[in-house]
Structure formats: C-alpha cells, structure tokens
Amino acid sequence: MSGFATARQKMVDGQVRPNDVTDVRILDAMLAVPREAFVPPNQRALAYLDLDLDVSEGGAARRVLIKPQVLAKMLQAAKIKQTDKVLVAGSAAGYAAAVVARLAGQVVATESDPAQVAKANDVLAQLGLANVTFKAAAVADGDPADAPFDVIVLDGATEVTPERLYGQLRNGGRLVGVFATTKPPRAMIVTHSHGDFGNRVLFDASVPVLPGLERLPAFVF
Fold it and tell me: May I have one GO cellular component term (predicted)?
C-alpha cells in the first residue's frame, strides 16, 4: 500500500469512523478518492490531516477543503441515493464533488474561482468521474439551469440564509451545510416540503465561510 493510500485508510479509520459515520458507501468513497490529487504539490503531505486545508495558489482568494469528518457527517445526514441529482456549492478544488460523485447519479459543482474550476476538471477527468459537471459560478447563485436538485451540499459555511439555493431544491430535497448564523456554528439539514423549509441541527462545526455567503457588515452610527 502506497504512502497516500495508507494515509487515506488512517483518515477513514481515525477521523471519519470515530465520528459516527457508519454509511459504508461514504467510507468506500473516501477510501477511493485520492484527496492529495486535489491539493497543491507543496500541501500534499497535509492532505489527510484533520484540518481545513488551504488549496489556494498564486495569491487567489483563500479556498479550502473542509475537514474530512465534517464532510462525511453531512453527507451521511443527506442520505444521497444513486438516483439523486446533487449540487455541490463552493466545491473549491473539487474533492467534495468527487466523493459525492461516487454516491449520486449526477453531480453539478460550482466554484467562484475559475482557476480552481479548471484544475478540478482536469483531476475529475483523470479519475474518470464522468457524472460531474463543474462550473464557474457564484456560490450563492447555485445553478438554476440544472435545478431542481434532490440534494444540495454547501462545501463550507454560510453566515446568511442561502435563499437562492433553497429555491433550487426539489420537493422532498435536502440541503446540508454549516450555518454560522449562530454561535457556535452548527451543521444543519434543511428539508423542502411543499414550499416550506424545515431545519434540524446535526452537530456543532466550524469551517471557513464560503465566498458570497458572508454576513454583510452592520452599519454603525
């Protein structure tokens, strides 16, 4: 077993399983997707650590791969089926989209940084994940052209209610993400049912806020 394959196994056994992730499909997906392939060369030694990994390059806006165990727990709550169409909003270098592609029938991923989109498309093609479409788009806008979605995954946190994304959920659809609208921030699942949206807290979590989903600064007199 190669060094990265060993590290991948340790990530699943030491970070993901102990955090109550029992869905075998998610565990298998994380064992199959090489996280190091989505990381700049100088960061690959850190690819399997329990941290939000900065994948920005060349002075671009900071973009991260969120902690593997946070991603895994959100995906487990979303209960993605093989027939589902899933939007991964703000997928940075594409790791989350690659994991979701092994769970869902069709995946659309968005990212606001065109350079990240280009790199992600190269890696996804090398991995043979033909069921992913990766687009350059503002995270908050989602992808109205391909909506509605069975599941939407926020690959990061939001400080505001992502209304436009809610509107792209199919009836019965689920959105998972970290909501930093309260303290402490919490991972939540939002469910669409006949025009209403209900939410349920999953667990406390702290991950970087996605670009375009930041809270507007309050006006101070």
Answer: cytoplasm
pLDDT for 60 equals 62
The answer as to whether 214 is a domain residue is no
**Full residue range of the structural domain in which residue 16 is found:** 3-204
151 within a domain of the structure (yes/no): yes
d(CA 110, CA 159): 18
Task: Write the pLDDT tens digit of every residue in 60-91.
Answer: 678 899 999 999 999 999 999 999 999 999 99
Residues 17 and 219: their CA atoms lie apart, in Å, by 44
How do strand 132-136 and strand 106-111 relate by DSSP bridges?
parallel
Nearest Cα neighbor of 29 from 18, 21, 20 is: 21
Q: Whole-number mean pLDDT of the chain? A: 94
Going by C-alpha positions, the residue among 98, 89, 85 that lies closest to residue 34 is 98
Q: Residue 52: what residue type?
A: D
Q: What is the CATH classification number for the domain harbouring 100?
A: 3.40.50.150
CA atoms of 34 and 46, how far apart (whole Å): 13
Count of CA atoms in the C-beta half-sphere (13 A) of 91: 32
Looking at the structure of the chain, the number of domains it has is: 1
DSSP strand pairing (169-179 vs 186-193):
antiparallel
Establish if 219 belongs to a structural domain: no
Contact between 129 and 152 under an 8 Å Cβ cutoff? The reply is no
Helices then strands, counting H and E runs in the chain, come out as 6, 9
CA-to-CA distance for 66 and 155, rounded, in angstroms?
7
